[in-house]
Design goal:
single chain; 228 residues; alpha/beta; Purple Acid Phosphatase, chain A, domain 2; 6-stranded mixed beta sheet; 5-stranded mixed beta sheet; 5 helices; 24% helix; binds fe (ii) ion
Length: 228
């Protein structure tokens, strides 16, 4: 089976207790461990960014060990809190050196689960009014990354996009991201990043023939969501 969940926000080596973000975050790592228990080594879970609070890869070793020990293969993408991320190559080298071989990175690439292509990138919130040059630059880079990932999907029967930032949220709408999702015939889009009361503005459901769903850990009860 293919699963997804976002925003694990682990902090085994950093002093960042998540219960300050709300009662539902109390004991969230135990909840995650418990809720992953029904998965098997053949399952695949896409983790949609904000994995850990650690600043460097070394700060995150215990967090990545936790992720590695969850059953099945994990495909991770970057969130805005993943400061440990410098390059995908460095992270993959670190995973290899530490025997974390169940973790793969979705970044300028694409994975396949049977006939289904797993595509995605972090994304960005680029304000529609007066965006800074920096915002425009970051957004353009993310759009390019998503396009690269989607183009590698070829003629896959089904294409699913995983993002950290939603392509639209409240009054925010990224025309470029949505256009790509439509142009490449994506059927579903899963995203994270949105927590707490902010979830009230998150869109979930069908829009333009694409199904959207928020999968941040607190939103889905710290339980991986079955995609396929
Ligand atoms: Fe988050
Ligand atoms: Fe985030």
């Amino acid at each position: 089976m293919l699963y997804t969940i976002g925003d694990l926000h682990l902090s085994f080596q950093t002093d960042k207790p998540m219960d300050v973000f709300g009662r539902e975050w109390e004991g969230h790592t135990e909840k995650l461990r418990e809720n992953f228990r029904s998965l098997t080594p053949d399952d695949v879970t896409v983790i949609a960014g904000d994995l850990t609070w650690g600043i460097s890869l070394a700060d995150c070793l215990e967090d990545f060990r936790f992720i590695h020990e969850l059953p099945g293969k994990k495909i991770i993408l970057k969130g805005n809190h993943d400061f440990w991320w410098s390059t995908a190559t460095k992270a993959m080298k670190f995973f290899k050196e530490n025997g974390l071989d169940s973790i793969e990175i979705l970044n300028n690439n694409c994975f396949f689960y049977g006939d289904t292509a797993i595509c995605g990138t972090r994304g960005w919130f680029c304000p529609s009014e007066n965006p800074s040059d920096q915002d425009k630059k970051i957004m353009a880079r993310e759009v390019l990354r998503l396009e690269t990932s989607l183009s590698l999907a070829g003629n896959a029967e089904r294409k699913i996009v995983f993002l950290h930032y939603p392509p639209f949220y409240g009054k925010y709408y990224s025309r470029e991201m949505v256009d790509l999702i439509h142009r490449y015939g994506v059927s579903e889009c899963y995203y994270g990043h949105i927590h707490g009361s902010g979830r009230l503005l998150a869109f979930e459901g069908e829009a333009g023939g694409v199904r959207y769903r928020l999968v941040s850990a607190d939103h889905v009860g710290f339980k991986p969501v079955r995609v396929l």
